[in-house]
Amino acid sequence: SQVKSENRKTIWNAEEVPEGSEFDDTWDPREQPEYQILFKQCVGTEDVFFGMSSKDPSTACCEDVVIKIKLPETKYSDIALDIQDKVLDLRTPKKKLLLHLPYHVDSKNGKARFLSEEETLEVTLRVSRKFDFVNFV
C-alpha cells in the first residue's frame, strides 16, 4: 500500500492529530477535578404522553451537554474557562481539566455558573450537529 504525503518530512497528517491536542500539557502537576457529563433534552407533553415527535431517550436526541465540575476550595475569580467546538479547557490554581467533548458544541453561546455552596462549576453547551435543523424543527 502506498501512503500519499505532501511533504516527505512530516511525521503524521493533520487528520491524525486529535482536535484540542494543542492544549495538552503532560508536565503540568495540577490534578484533574471530578466531573460529570450529562445530556439534556427539551420535551413537552406531546413527547412524554403522546409520543408525537421522533425524539427518544438517546443522546442523539439531546440538545444540550451539561458538564458539572467539582472544584473544592476554589473561588469563582480563580477559574479560567476556554471552550472550543470540541474541547473544554478549565484551569484553576490547583486543578486542570482538558476535556474532549462527545459532540461538537456551539462554543459562542454557552452558559456557566458557579454553585459556591456545592463548590461546583456547571457548564451548559448547545450541541451543534449537522442536520439538526431537519431533525429538531
From TrEMBL:
GO terms for molecular function: dynein intermediate chain binding; protein-folding chaperone binding. InterPro entries: DNAAF6 (IPR026697), PIH1D1/2/3_CS-like (IPR041442). Residues 16-26 have a biased composition (Acidic residues). Residues 1-26 are annotated as: Disordered. GO terms for biological process: axonemal dynein complex assembly; flagellated sperm motility. Residues 32-127 form the PIH1D1/2/3 CS-like domain. GO terms for cellular component: cytoplasm. Belongs to the PIH1 family. This is PIHD3 protein. It comes from Pandion haliaetus. The gene is Pih1d3.
